[in-house]
Predict the 3D structure of the following.
Amino acid sequence: MELTPFLTNSKSFYVITTDLEGRILSFNDLFDINFKDLFEELIGLPFAAILQKSEIGKFYDALEACNRPNGQINLTLNTLPAIDNRLCTSKWEFSVVNDKKTKSKKIMGVGYPIDHNTGSTSVLTGSEHILKGQNSDHFSNFLINNLPGIFLLMDENGKYKLWNQDTEKVTGYDHLEIKSMEPYAMLDPNDRTILQEAMTNALGSGNAEVEIELITKNSLRIPHYLILRPIKSEEKLFFIITGLDISEEIKTLLQMQLSESTFRSAFEYSAFGMSLVSPEGKWLKVNNELCSLLGYDEETILTLNILEITKAEDRDKIREIMQEFFDRKLETARLENRFVHKKGRTVWANISVSLIRDRMHMPLYFVIQIEDITDRKEYEEKINNQITLLSEISFITSHELRHEYAKLHSVVNFLKDRQDLFTEREDQFLIKESIRAFNNINSSIYKINDKITFGQFMEINIGGSGKMDHDHVLLVDDDPIANYVNTKLLEKYFDKNKIYSVNSSDQAIQHMKNHNSKNDYLVLLDLNMPNKTGWDFLEEYKALGFSAPVLILTSSISMSDREEAKKYDVIKRFISKPLTDEAAMQIKNMK
């Protein structure tokens, strides 16, 4: 795109064109004079290169705005020191223009250098060309109509003297309608007052900025950002007004405010722990849920690094994930991590991670959501332990018990049906092997008890001190063989004349009534009996006021039975069948 002679020779303002990515394509003499000594070549140079570092982001924001439909932007930029070794501040207006020659889009920028002594723009001198008509064809046909947004030349009474095509397009009025308008038309009374105050301020400072609404021919109200510059020509006062439609900016601002408010609410009131973490791993912001989860107050946790409260075994994993974000291998990530609570316990967490970058794509901070899954992990560990336990029990049952049972089954059948086939020596051998098999079965039962019920003999309600006085023993079991065997076993430790056995709960209650509720009794009670269970016996026993100690002697391996037994004060022990000599001796010596 070639610049017209008027633009090329202007001593009042900079004019440049760039491609859509901001690389300089052309420029006028004033721009060349100011910046040629700073760089070997200006053509192809990113315009951002002439800017102060702090201004680069503003320029790229302007480019993005220009690339939107009807995009245009107005802003102040500080460049590197120019030939006079002073910071050069300019008001720039950028917009997209069509290059008819190349049939491509370009960015056109017009910059008005600001005098640091007066604060006014040097365009005031150049603007007199508009009124005097010098190069007016070039200016009207190119500069005015390619300026971003609306352009108005207004006298001090508010009468419109000159305007560009965008003004007609935005307002809907044609040339004759604007020419015949009353002063300050297109403004409501409130905005007229605001504009008049801005005109007064511009006379004092050299320029003024204001936001008002233009009222279109269709009565629409379009918010605009205006810059006013006063100029004098032949002793008459005029105001150059350039303006940008800020409807989208206001809409975007409202959306940002809503988005920020929504994010803030979601952050603060989330059911999960929420945090912002620096690229170095330092906590920047945390919500109450995260503080509660890890046991720290907010002030303390903000002094820590995420790795400091991550379990040592998981720290390398966190470092690797962060590096993958920096290397652009990840945009989001989910993983399990173990944190260390302030009290030292492990907190399992599902964490979701994303990385926020700035406009230069440099990492700003991580957004990390933390879900407490400690209960779930502990439950999974419990299930895994139970699976292991069941596997071990399955092995004991399928291998050890069934093997010994098969051996006994064979021996018994031989002894029953073919007794005449064996010598006395062979009989002794078979009896010995049967006893050994019984012992193995008993041992396997103990193994299962140990796995599931934590031992054969469990104390429940222990009270008082010294040896308990229980000379009489009552066995309550519906299996007569069990009663017979247990009676013989207990006779080693108790007077056989004081050992009684019954086969039901009703018989047991009647026995206790007949013996006048003697408290020197010791009751060994089976739980699983027909008609009335051991639990039914205990309820009636308690209701009748009996207080003699009860020992549960059962084949049940249910933990719920053991927990239920703890509810009865009279129950002192929970013993798993079969009753052994060792257990019988412990019963005798109970305290």
Notes: The CA atoms of residues 83 and 393 lie 91 Å apart. Confidence is low (pLDDT under 50) at residues 116-140, 462-466.
